[in-house]
């Protein structure tokens, strides 16, 4: 009987130890934690670029055979503001101003510089952004442009004034952002604007010359991107 009682006591003690170890094992099991939800990005983005404006040379004065026109290149700052409707679809408003000197070419080459005009070409594009390339984020876009011509001054005594008419045009765009983090990156962008405004030149004697300026500039820009 004593042996039986001693065996029972040992068995009970061993069972308690096993149960304690099992409970300790249960306590050491890691507690499940829900994954951290990443904060959604703001839909707003801005870019500040240095912009090289390269017009096409072309145009004519009505009634003057073999007439042609040239336009000077320029470099100017540009600000654009983007709003993302989805992670892929965005609208971009492009803001900047520059100037160009209009010169005679072809049969008008002897005139030299004709006028200098300032150009304000606000442009709105709808873009598609590709998002499968990590920090490299290319995009394409298309939209409309409305160009305002102001501070128009003649540079040739053969003309007393010039009036380049404001006009609508088509805009095509391609570029990319390279993002260093969720906020900051660099940008490279190329746009083609289709602009062929009409103009009127007035002579000192009151005569009028009508024509068309085929500007159709390339806008090549690079700068800094910030996503809010």
TrEMBL record:
It holds the Pfam family OmpW. It comes from the Bacteria. Keywords: Signal. Residues 1-24 form the signal peptide. Gene3D superfamilies: 2.40.160.20. The keyword Oxidoreductase does not apply. InterPro entries: OMP/PagP_B-barrel, OMPW. Belongs to the OmpW/AlkL family. This is Outer membrane protein. It comes from Xanthobacter agilis.
